[in-house]
Amino acid sequence: MRVSSSIHGAANGIMSFFFKAEWYSIVYIYHFFLIHLSVDGHLGCFHVLAIVNTAAVNMQVHVSFSRNILSRYMPKSGLAGSYGSSVYSF
Questions:
Q1: Who's near 81: CB < 8 A, 6+ residues apart?
Q2: What are the alphabetically sorted keywords of the record (predicted)?
Q3: In terms of CB atoms within 10 Å, which of 16, 32, 62, 69 comes out highest?
Q4: Please, which residues have CB within 8 angstroms of residue 4's CB and are 6 or more apart in sequence?
């Protein structure tokens, strides 16, 4: 059995995650993301659940949450080089 997964998110009001799973039977994916900002104790979390039954699946999950969780502490230059648009890889 071989499992390959990657998560990419862009923080600009809506988080977009890309999951790629390769498995030769039923794939059960459950992710619990917890964001804790230690500066003033803000906490954000969300769940992603997917059950698939194929050999290779590409799926894109959009998760919306309060924008001020990330935008208040986002560096202005960001990784993408533009204001307010940074790309994070986990």
A1: none
A2: Membrane, Transmembrane, Transmembrane helix
A3: 69
A4: 20, 21, 22
Residue whose C-alpha is closest to residue 34's, from 80, 90, 87:
90
The tokens for 52 are: 């698939």
CA 85 from centroid of its chain's CA atoms: 15
d(CA 51, CA 64): 21
In order along its 90 residues, the chain shows pLDDT tens digits of 444 444 444 343 444 444 444 444 444 454 555 554 445 555 455 555 555 554 444 544 444 444 444 444 444 444 444 444 444 444
